[in-house]
Amino acid sequence: MNQTQFPKFSPITVTVKKNSRQLRLNAGYSMNGGARLLGVSRKQLEDIETIRNYGCHLDLELPARLKVIYKTSLDKLAGQVSEDYYSDCYVRPRKRPGPKSR
Question: Which of 63 and 6 is assigned the larger pLDDT?
């Protein structure tokens, strides 16, 4: 996965977002049904599942809920995780606020 393609999220976050969407679709739930199961609004679910720069970051509670609702393991949800703690897999890119030229 090319990290520059998703500059707002770490690779593990992108993986969880993609897998959560796929779990919802495989279970046959619409956006409204999936949102109801997670206890969030449809708009919040859209933000959770999107990997574009306007999506939201994930709280720890969300993967835990997904695990219970879709009866899947956290390992399957997170995908292949690097053994190297210092790998890019664990780095959330930070954007510098404000204009670039100061």
Answer: 63
